[in-house]
Amino acid sequence: MKYSRLYKDTLLNNVIPFWEKYAIDPVNGGYFTCLDSKGNVYDTDKFIWLQGRQAWTFSMLYNKVEKNENWLAIAKNGIDFLKKYGSDDNGDFYFSVTAEGQPLVKAYNIFSDCFAAMAFSQYAKASGDETVRALAIKTYFNILKRKDNPKGMYEKNTATRPLIGFSLPMILSNLVLELEDILEPEEIERTLDYSVHQVMDVFLDKQTGLIFENVFPDGSHDNSFNGRLINPGHGIEAMWFMIDIGVRRKDKALIDKAAQTIITILEYSWDTKHGGIFYFMDIKGYPPQQLEWDQKLWWVHLETLVALAKAYQYAGNEALLNWYDKVHEYAWSHFHDPENGEWFGYLNRQGEVLLNLKGGKWKGCFHVPRAMYQCWQSFENIETQIQ
Amino acid sequence: MKYSRLYKDTLLNNVIPFWEKYAIDPVNGGYFTCLDSKGNVYDTDKFIWLQGRQAWTFSMLYNKVEKNENWLAIAKNGIDFLKKYGSDDNGDFYFSVTAEGQPLVKAYNIFSDCFAAMAFSQYAKASGDETVRALAIKTYFNILKRKDNPKGMYEKNTATRPLIGFSLPMILSNLVLELEDILEPEEIERTLDYSVHQVMDVFLDKQTGLIFENVFPDGSHDNSFNGRLINPGHGIEAMWFMIDIGVRRKDKALIDKAAQTIITILEYSWDTKHGGIFYFMDIKGYPPQQLEWDQKLWWVHLETLVALAKAYQYAGNEALLNWYDKVHEYAWSHFHDPENGEWFGYLNRQGEVLLNLKGGKWKGCFHVPRAMYQCWQSFENIETQIQ
After folding, report:
1. Which domain holds residue A247?
2. What is the pLDDT of residue A90?
3. Which residues of A touch B (CB under 8 A)?
4. pTM score, two decimals?
């Protein structure tokens, strides 16, 4: 079967039906994301990242695939819950709430806000709802206001070692394109300039060609646990955000550099013994702090497939396609669950299922459907070019 | 070889020499704890838990094993560092500082303080230093003052689900005995009453016989990730603290209940497929949040050996000795490093070394030597009774 067909079929006939069937909370609204391998709810807490992400996914599908009213209703179910229960009096989004919407874990950083903003923006486009559109803008500027001190009073690090983290510029580079219909063009270009510079000049290390997870503001490195940390999935995911920006700006150099970086990171982080991509590594080969460093995570592999597909689509290098085939083979033979649908999230180093779940605190309706959609689109394009 | 002899020899000729040789920072004082498998320093950050714990270990050995002046000097090296760099203006102890003592991670909970207090108390006893004795008392009362809100402003949980954690009553039950020479008898008895009640009546579940990691203040359970969490190593470690209290109070019922609880937890958490004790479990068998749930950790197995040795010493049940032999066999054949000394800290579920280190952010000079000392003492006593 052609890749485009496989990814499209899986998205529409396997992944989306799974979340339509099992994730909706008909009583309180919002989504259950803690679903076991068969889709049964094993925990009812609601994690705001995942509420935003599922609302985004169904809005995006409505906008890009089909004007399916059920998808719009599912998106609205999450948007209404987020509007009602998602944020505190400052408009900062909680990390988690109970099934009924009572706050459980406070707004201790700005990533809940990022995914809420993405959801509001896509849903506003899908529904034409002006209130939600205004909420997307408000949330975006609240994120910018907090971006230099994203953890606020919850920041436990002193100023002794002023490292900056990769997550923020990485997510901004995607968020601002998500909010394209809503923000002023100057705001978009300014934030894209900032993100591309941060990602490609500050965090991308010239010497190794790898993305460091934490660096000093001038891009220099610190010989500490945080300073030595490599998060291959993060680096690769950011590269497809860069390719999207490169396509938008017709910047071939940016696309080529991103494509090369994907290969460099993959060569560095591929587990030659058991296959798959490591979760965390230490640039000097020292023991990482993260006990889960050698595990194989679904999102790392899916983001890699998206990055390789886009890179091959626009840079056309055969090495990218060879890597695609290799990662595709690993991912589909290990994460995909032919029995009950959707993908497992967490494997041990050996590739065995570590947690028998389809969703949890961090895995929801997002990486699998987004990657299925992106790979479908890229390969439809690639296959058309080849014919 | 007799167990008493093996544990004593390993303590004095293998474990202590390792830390004497590799952990001392001769330039700034304090200890390096990030040591690779051969003892080379791979990171110079200083974690306050581990500074306190190593100073405690060498003070304890001086007090209980031998008046070795080198041990006292090594203890002083850590005590001086803690006095100079360990705490902020409130007297709250940081989580970590640089090699030179500059604060890195703030005082976001009270466990650094607990290990500092233990160290000050043992060192005051060893050295007769009145300043350090006063510091032990001051630190202890600072802990009590913070105990109902141990994370202070860093607490991210709302009041929606007011679960209480097991760590605090557990550590208090040991800390107060550590500070026996320093605190008033009424203070000791009051805190022991509180701790025993919390551990044995509130956290120990009557129905399953297991210790829950988080419960409501009345001991009832919550069906959430935190509420379902079982930390077998914590539960078992607390049982030897209970046995120490039972011995002190001549409370045979407490000793027997603790001994039974050790067996119940072991039967629940032993990995029948690969051997060893799981790190985290979910009481309903759902996927835990902790990705490292199935790993085998050094401290879990060592605390289990101490608990079983003490339980067998005072409760004398053959089932305890059978378990001891089984855990001993697993631990010595997997954690012990005959090539370079000391023990590995982290194994994967299969029992292979996951992190090739002898010390890190959490593993220092503490669990291995303390357990070697405790097992040596218990078996010397047991073997004498048998002869």
Report:
1. 165-356
2. 92
3. 34, 36, 42-43, 45, 95, 98, 102-106, 108, 153-154, 156-158, 160-161, 223-225, 284, 286-289, 291-292, 294-295, 346, 348-350, 354-357, 360-361
4. 0.97
